């Protein structure tokens, strides 16, 4: 009698674990679908990024979430962009300080950027070229969520 109950419990436990595993796969698939959908809607390979440094303070702080889009209009001075530098994995969030036409690409642009909290421009970050190309832009910042407010709301002792 006890062995029958144990077998039933094992079978039930196995079914429950499989159901939880399938539910977890559904959650992962939905998250991936939402991410890919956002990428298509915003025309950006990375529609949401997290600020990793203080170089854009006071505009953005570490941990802030930035929402990006990629428009077809030329990038203008003053826009905040996220760009990739060849040889680095982490994209950089900085403001465009100067633009010029790219002589090697019709309708292309060359951009000079700078972090709001940095003393000089980003030429040292570009690893060789003096300008970044517009095809290195991952996205233009369209909005953000200030995550420091979320943390200080959750942990009031950190607000001081």
Automatic annotation (TrEMBL):
Its main location: endoplasmic reticulum. The keyword DNA repair does not apply. One of its GO terms (biological process) is signal peptide processing. Catalytic component of the signal peptidase complex (SPC) which catalyzes the cleavage of N-terminal signal sequences from nascent proteins as they are translocated into the lumen of the endoplasmic reticulum. Specifically cleaves N-terminal signal peptides that contain a hydrophobic alpha-helix (h-region) shorter than 18-20 amino acids. It is found in: Endoplasmic reticulum membrane. Component of the signal peptidase complex (SPC) composed of a catalytic subunit SEC11 and three accessory subunits SPC1, SPC2 and SPC3. The complex induces a local thinning of the ER membrane which is used to measure the length of the signal peptide (SP) h-region of protein substrates. This ensures the selectivity of the complex towards h-regions shorter than 18-20 amino acids. SPC associates with the translocon complex. Keywords: Endoplasmic reticulum, Hydrolase, Membrane, Protease, Signal-anchor, Transmembrane, Transmembrane helix. CDD domains: S26_SPase_I. The keyword Metal-binding does not apply. Signal peptide: none annotated. One of its GO terms (cellular component) is signal peptidase complex. InterPro entries: LexA/Signal_pep-like_sf, Pept_S26A_signal_pept_1_Ser-AS, Peptidase_S26, Peptidase_S26B. It is a single-pass type II membrane protein. Its EC number is 3.4.21.89. Belongs to the peptidase S26B family. It comes from the Eukaryota. GO terms for molecular function: serine-type endopeptidase activity; signal peptidase activity. This is Signal peptidase complex catalytic subunit SEC11. PANTHER family: SIGNAL PEPTIDASE COMPLEX CATALYTIC SUBUNIT SEC11. It catalyses: Cleavage of hydrophobic, N-terminal signal or leader sequences from secreted and periplasmic proteins.
């Amino acid at each position: 009698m006890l062995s029958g109950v144990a077998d039933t419990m094992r079978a039930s436990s196995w079914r429950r674990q499989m159901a939880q595993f399938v539910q977890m796969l559904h959650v992962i698939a939905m998250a991936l679908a939402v991410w890919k959908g956002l990428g298509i809607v915003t025309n950006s390979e990375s529609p949401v990024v997290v600020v990793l440094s203080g170089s854009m303070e006071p505009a953005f702080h570490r941990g802030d979430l930035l929402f990006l889009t990629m428009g077809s209009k030329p990038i203008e001075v003053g826009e905040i962009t996220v760009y990739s530098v060849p040889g680095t994995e982490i994209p950089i969030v900085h403001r465009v300080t100067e633009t010029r036409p790219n002589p090697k690409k019709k309708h292309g642009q060359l951009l000079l950027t700078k972090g709001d909290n940095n003393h000089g421009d980003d030429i040292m970050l570009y690893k060789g070229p003096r300008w970044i190309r517009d095809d290195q832009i991952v996205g233009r910042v369209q909005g953000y969520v200030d995550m420091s407010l979320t943390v200080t709301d959750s942990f009031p002792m950190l607000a001081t």
